[in-house]
Amino acid sequence: MPVATLKDLAKLIERRAGAVVITEEALSGDGADALSEALAVQPSWSDVPFIVLANDAATNRSDIAARRMDALRNAVLLSRPLHAEELIRAVRSALTARGRQHEARKRMEELHLREQQLFESEAKFHAITDSVDQMIWSALPDGYHDYYNHRWYEFTGVPEGSTDGEAWNGMFHKDDQEIAWGLWRHSLKTGEPYEVEYRLRHRSGDYRWVLGRAQPVHNEAGEIVRWYGSCTDIHAIKLAQEQRQLMLAEMNHRVKNTLAMVNVMVSQTLRQADNLHDAQASIQSRIGMMAQAHDRLIQSSWKETRLLEVIEAALAPHRTGEGRFSFSGPDLPIGSKQALALTMALHELATNASKYGALSTKTGNIRITWNVEQSDVDEFQFHWTESNGPKVAQPTRRGFGSRMIEQALAGYFSGKAELNYNSDGLTFSLSAPLSGLTL
Asked: What is the distance between the alpha carbons of residues 434 and 439, in angstroms, rounded to a whole number?
């Protein structure tokens, strides 16, 4: 496109001219400043090629023309006169060079776009991985760990980068390191997903149960290019599972003990009862008391309750509000099997007192006391004392209640139990190591 002045040429260059053919004389014309400004504001990739048709004699060149030629930066001088083919080849070469500039610009823009996309993608990845309540990590195809999210460092408390490579395995409990490492090697070899439960060292120094998982990412050729993994804190779940297993085992043990006690109670009661009606009443009463004792244990923690609560609950059906009972002693913890046995023993004592002892008269009283005697081995002492009732005589036979109180109760407490049929009132004593209350 022909132009008449340098100003017009400047405008053409601003519109991304391919190449410029200009005479030496034209460079001396007006508008040189506009041309210089247009060239100065070109982007870094742009370098407009000039083909200057120069005079044959350089000595005749004006200083202005010489300076303006130098200012063109990318200029080729063709001396006149010249053959048309020379000009054509020069223009073709200039346009080719200009085309390569545009190609380079396009590639540069594509690279810049990819770089921006990569930056945004990486920023988004970090934003996502750092926002979840899981430890996220990644590894190279050979298993080299090269990334952990913020949650990993927050959980473990280790410095950033200190667990890169294979150092992660040292964060596991020593009993879990071999299996975790073996499974990871198997996954690297086969490409199979990685999954393992292990104990990971927390920043507190304690070890917490964690579920580790990883999946491989493949390229179009099916080759693994990266592993992405996660670590999920399952410590609370693991403890709940262990607690549930302990509870099931404990319940199984207690149910077996209870059924054994029921079996003995029913057999002894039927064998010693004068008639079936009395046996039925005794069995119902005893089983009812056992059920109440179990209810209290479940409402507490099953494994342990309080001694005062056991005593008050066991005597509740026998108290009339007339102040026939008095008791005193420290409120000690007591295990489930001991609580059940003591409940049954107190029920038997109170039932016997209602039929034959202090509670069978209006004036009778029962005093219950317990204490802990301090010694090398602290000893628990429990006493049941009846007074102001009818005269007591030694029984001619010993029933289930008596044997259960003296033998079974003593066994549950790992101590000694004794019934004394004093003429002025029955007494019962239990002595056992303090630890026997919660065995």
From this structure: 10
